[in-house]
Specification:
Helix content of chain B: 40-55%
Largest interface: A-B, 37 and 35 residues
Structural class of chain B: alpha/beta
Largest sheet of chain B: 8 strands, parallel
Order of helices and strands of chain B: EHEHEHHEHEEHEHHHEHEHHH
Strand order of the largest sheet of chain A: 2-1-3-4-12-11-10
Strand content of chain B: 5-15%
Order of helices and strands of chain A: EHEEHHEHEEEEEEEEH
CATH class of chain A: Alpha Beta
Number of helices of chain B: 13
CATH architecture of chain A: 3-Layer(aba) Sandwich
Radius of gyration of chain A: 15 Å
Shape of chain B: globular
Oligomer: heterodimer
Strand order of the largest sheet of chain B: 8-7-6-5-4-3-2-9
Helix content of chain A: 25-40%
Strand content of chain A: 25-35%
Distance between the termini of chain A: 16 Å
Largest sheet of chain A: 7 strands, mixed
Shape of chain A: globular
Distance between the termini of chain B: 36 Å
CATH superfamily of chain A: Class I glutamine amidotransferase (GATase) domain
Radius of gyration of chain B: 18 Å
Chain lengths: 201, 293
């Protein structure tokens, strides 16, 4: 089962794309960058990377990614959002009228720690991963409120920073900036589970 | 918990990749830039072409402008300090800007030493026109690089020269034998250790953006094609006829730099870009790229 190959896309409109591609490959997945909506076809999972959420959101709207990624999600295909990707996935963004994808049942705050001088790294225990993960927070968002179906996987100073809702996974830090790819392995596991389930069904 | 580590500082620049960082002179321009999809703005008192026209000594912007810009946008705000001007950089850090550009666009404050950037919590971007400069800046603690180009000219030729030179030098270093690296380190004026890192990885340890002369969407795309991680646009946007449309076009051309039909589409009816300057017409004293060492 673990040897099953999965193909995971990284949304490549803006942000830390190559780092995610590298981490996914090290986690045993086939990784491709996605710049056009038709490149979503044939993918088993998708990563929405860190970057500037306003830029990524605008370009997603412009090129028809909002509808297409919602369809991708409706089919149960796993999506992993890091930092800006977390914001893009959220149903509600503090101080902003419109969400981007609005898929995950949570309310998030952008730049919740402050400006760049408040950015930091720390060892973060994550549920489902044995040893703490080195977590890099850069102008990071926080999850302020969650719906019933959302499970919190990690907190930092009692604030929610990693969570999962079924096939959706988010972290407010950047697992792609270190050589520790266990969170990518966790996500690749979700994608494998989906793929084997889909094959059976 | 550790703040200001090199991973945190370099990581911030990684998040800018594939993006466009735009020069803005006031809150209104900053809002236009953010709405157009800029990944960051550079808050300035004057854009490079105006600095060039005005002459005299160019310094750090009035903190009022920097603060106004920080107040109205949610994207990162950068600001420029003079080369070697430790106090201007500390002042900008105290204001809470997200990135400092130790920039040759301003008049250098020190003709020997650049700022020791290691000790700052916030990251620095510096210009470079060859691999030696790039690695000296990294050695001093720069977390991001950009080509110097020739700012305020609307002429891409120098940015192209610098990007090609740096990437060509990296390829050369990668292919040297290990014992040849010592002499090459001496030639480039850099430490053996940083050069060894380039030799082993075949790339810079920080992102390298294009800057200095980007005036059209096609210019931005050309720099991405040549291997830039992203683009700084200085005078190009707010010196053009229709800044809003122009800014959006440059953002799209940077993302889809290899989609020529899209670049054709966004380049239609943009109005006049900024007026350019032939580099050969510049007197040596007017060349900003020769500032810094």
């Amino acid at each position: 089962m673990t040897n099953q190959t999965v193909k995971i896309g990284v949304l490549a409109l803006q942000g830390a794309v190559s780092e995610h591609l590298r981490s996914l490959e090290r986690a045993g997945a086939e990784a491709v960058s996605v710049k056009r909506t038709e490149q979503l076809d044939g993918l088993d999972g998708l990563v929405i990377p860190g970057g500037e959420s306003t830029t990524i959101g605008k370009l997603m709207r412009k090129y028809g990614f909002i509808e297409r990624v919602r369809e991708f999600s409706e089919a149960g295909r796993p999506i992993f959002g890091t930092c800006a990707g977390l914001i893009v996935l959220a149903k509600e963004i503090e101080g902003q009228e419109e969400p981007h994808l609005g898929l995950m049942d949570m309310k998030v705050a952008r730049n919740a720690f402050g400006r760049q001088r408040e950015s930091f790294e720390t060892d973060l225990p994550i549920k489902g991963i044995e040893q703490p993960v080195r977590a890099v927070f850069i102008r990071a968002p926080l999850i302020r409120e969650i719906g019933e179906g959302v499970e919190v996987l990690a907190t930092y100073n009692e604030e929610m920073v990693t969570a999962r809702e079924g096939h959706l996974l988010v972290s407010s830090f950047h697992p792609e900036l270190t050589d520790d790819y266990r969170l990518h392995e966790y996500f690749a596991g979700m994608v494998r589970e989906f793929k084997s389930g889909a094959a059976k069904g | 918990m550790e703040a200001g580590t090199s991973r945190v500082k370099r990581g911030m620049a990684e998040m800018q990749k594939g993006g466009v960082i735009m020069d803005v002179m006031n809150a209104e321009q900053a809002k236009i830039a953010e709405a157009a999809g800029a990944t960051a703005v550079m808050a300035l008192e004057r854009v490079p072409s105006d600095i060039r026209a005005a002459g005299g000594v160019a310094r750090m912007a009035d903190p009022t402008i920097v603060e106004e810009v920080m107040k109205v946008v949610s994207i990162p705000v950068m600001a420029k300090a003079r080369i070697g001007h430790y106090v201007e950089a500390k002042v900008l850090e105290s204001l809470g800007v997200d990135y400092i550009d130790e920039s040759e666009v301003l008049t250098p404050a020190d003709e020997v030493f650049h700022i020791d950037k290691q000790e700052f919590t916030i990251p620095f971007v510096c210009g470079a026109k060859d691999l030696g400069e790039a690695l000296r800046r990294i050695g001093e603690g720069a977390s991001m690089l950009r080509t110097k180009g020739e700012p305020g000219t609307g002429n891409i030729v120098e940015a192209v020269r610098h990007m090609r030179l740096i990437n060509g030098q990296i390829r050369r270093v990668k292919n040297l034998s290990k014992d040849e690296l010592y002499a090459e380190a001496k030639n480039l004026g850099v430490s053996y250790e940083v050069l060894l890192d380039i030799h082993q990885h075949g790339k810079l340890p920080v992102v390298n953006f294009a800057a200095g002369g980007v005036a059209t969407p096609a210019d931005a795309a050309l720099m991405m094609h040549l291997g830039a991680d992203g683009v700084f646009v200085g005078s190009g946007i707010f010196k053009s006829d229709n800044p809003e449309k122009f800014a959006r076009a440059i953002v799209e051309a940077t993302t889809h730099y290899d989609d020529y039909r899209l670049i054709a589409e966004v380049s239609k009816n943009l109005g006049a870009p900024m007026k350019g300057i032939d580099i050969k017409q510049l007197a040596p004293s007017e060349r900003m790229q020769d500032r810094g060492w």
